[in-house]
Amino acid sequence: MEKPRYPCLYQINTRVWLTELSQTLGRTATLDDIPDAELDRLAATGFDWIWLLSVWRTGSAAQQVSRLNSEWRHEFQETLPDLREDDIAGSGFAISGYTVHPSLGGDTALARVRQRLRDRGLRLMLDFVPNHTAPDHPWVEEHPEYYVAGTESDLEQAPQNYTRIPQNDRVVAFGRDPYFAGWPDTLQLDYSNPATQQAMCSELLRIASQCDGVRCDMAMLVLPDVFERTWGRRAPLFWPDMTRRVRERVPGFCFMAEVYWDLEWTMQQQGFDYAYDKRLYDRLRDGHARPVREHFRAGLDFQDKVARFMENHDEPRAAAIFPPAMHQAAAVITYLSPGLRFFHQGQFEGRRKRIAPHLVRAPIEPVDEAVKRFYEGLLSVMRNRTVRDGDWCKLDCEPAWDGNWTSDGFLAFGWQRDAARLLVVVNYASNQGQCYVRLPYADPDGGTVRFTDLTSGACYEHAENDLLSTGLYIDLPPWGYHLFEMKPA
pTM, whole model, 2 decimals? Predict the structure, then answer.
């Protein structure tokens, strides 16, 4: 199976997808009902990975919390004005067991859809939630020592972070990170207990037999420093030994970390193939080119191992927060830079409503045809082997004349694979701008270079001597961009 240097991943909300299929079929759909034609389409689009979100078993305890939490319910009703109780299945991250939910067809249906994906050259990614479990996970009764225990005083003073377990009358902590109140539909695992770590490693070894990689939810929460800051107790390192043990059994198994707080490099060093690049996303949302440009100063040992995205199930929809022209410019930067290219179901259609992971139904939204056309064009470029397997470099953008400050709004990248060359130039600013882009590819012996814009089809020719002496002159409108294929004329 092909393994490009810079693969593409597509995240699918499995329960929502199957709800839509159920409505079409007039009966409950399982993973076996996913049409072959849909898998063919995903493969033809150029994806390498399919992340099926929320396939694992969830229980009634977390579902009840989801249905009764007034703050969450308000969000659900904003998404679905015609909200029904059946729409709220509980969070897919409040897992009561790492077996496929029976309503999705169980483990055997997952095995079959995995094989169907593999037949098309697609790898399967699933969820792993290291930090917590659902309140009705079997361990709550069978192994209460696996959880962070609290006291009556903790429960009285911080009821947002602790709960009483009716099964055994124990006080146990909700799952949480150190900056927010606990998640009331989860219970916190105690990583200072080696037995807990061993149990979670055993779970992950079993998961690794069912897929090709895992996206690890809030992976930094079990780092020793973070765990101690949250719970006041030191935890042994978990990830380095665990990733090694899994790869010993399943060579090439992939780990992707959801991670924040500038801990991406830490997760990479502890065995992760990819770590969320939330910093780039935040800088693109801020709309200023210089911090974005500075982000790309990092070495490729870092950049090759980040997952770059415009939206996911946690973030707002890109079409809802980026104005149209800015959306396109940000996507060009995000997806034509190194790393894992991470897309989200509904992104290509310009969906505007985020679907909470507690819900199993999505609202009906019209397709934004302009967004759809843009992504069709971008994905066509991304199927080019030059940007899948080539060498990337950041290029300098210089003022077009003395005193022209607009060059500060530009970013430029070069891609090269053998003789193939691609130039990406973006004016990431709300004003028209000009600059000269310094190219590393010009031949000092002279000749002419033809620049073909892959989005518009326009062609331009420039003498190589001019490109060497001054660079390529660029003049772009606000949020404008060029994707040039470079060839000898």
Answer: 0.96
